[in-house]
Amino acid sequence: MAEQSGKLVLRCPRLGGEVHLTYCLRESAGRPCIRTLQCWHAVPQVCERLMKRLPEDEIRRLMEPVPRDRMSVILDAAEQGKRR
User: Fold this and answer.
1) Quick one: DSSP state of residue 31?
2) At a CB cut-off of 8 Å and minimum separation 6, what does 12 contact?
């Protein structure tokens, strides 16, 4: 995680590049990205802030198991293709 011009930035595993926290909080049609808590877990003030500001249903959605990343799905499909 880095801080650029007062904004928190980290590498997004979904996009493969750096993104600001503000992007993570509005990524999914104005809702937080499903991976927000997983990605920002190393920054306690971010997690605390989210828990205080988000409605309970959003918190539950963010705490559900995170879907596998795209690369894992692709590699599994390639492996299954080899077996056939």
Assistant:
1) B
2) 18, 19, 23, 24, 39
